[in-house]
Amino acid sequence: MKLVCPACGSVNSLDSLIGHDGARAAMAELAALSGPLAGALLRYIALFRPAQRQLSFDRVASLLNELRPMVIDARISRNGRLYAAPREVWIDAIDTLIAGRDRLTLPLKSHGYLLEIIVGQIHKAEAAAESKREAGRAGHTPVGGVAPPSPHPSPLKGEGEKAPEPRASRETIAKTLAEAKNLVKGNAP
Fold it and tell me: Three-state SS for 95?
């Protein structure tokens, strides 16, 4: 039976694939990342194929091996920060990358662009969540006039690292403190 690898374009029989160390390693890496993500990863790995040539099975296995720990841990490290990256985020980022493949310089040399897309998606989700929290706070003021602090979503913080406080929260706290001082002095706001 002849098989065509969607990532490298190689045509081989199943027997020779199982007998080849690199092909066997690539299949093992792909099996560890099964499900919808496996198909997305194969489409992504194809972006590493040089023009007019095929990717070697060893290179496919190596690329998958680089991604596996990040996918399984569901987090990435970028610019010294850890970010939560569940499988759905990986699939969306790969789809985004492939949709814009006409703007890419192929073949890809590293996973850097994919990781930047993931970080960008996380930042966009954080901004949307912060806007939603701010809109919720603007709609009502809790008893006592002080809004409770909001938890920050990912990125995951490393030991001893403190997430920066959003500017809007600092302004809200300063305004609330000024109003409280006026109330203590007997001045109505």
Answer: helix
Strands 75-78 and 11-13, by their bridges, are: unpaired
Name the token pair of 122.
Answer: 């996380």
Parts of the chain with a pLDDT under 50: 150, 152-154, 157, 159-160, 163-165, 188-189
Contact by Cβ (8 Å): 58, 8: no
Residue 94 near residue 118, CB atoms below 8 Å: no
User: How does pLDDT run across 139-188, given as a tens digit for each residue?
Assistant: 655 555 555 554 544 455 454 455 444 555 556 666 665 665 555 555 54
Indicate the SS3 state at residue 83: strand
Residue with tokens 């095929």: 54
In sequence order, which ranges of 11-56 are alpha helices (DSSP H)? Answer: 14-19, 21-32, 36-45
CB contact set of 164 (below 8 Å; sequence gap of 6+) = none
CA distance 146 to 68: 45
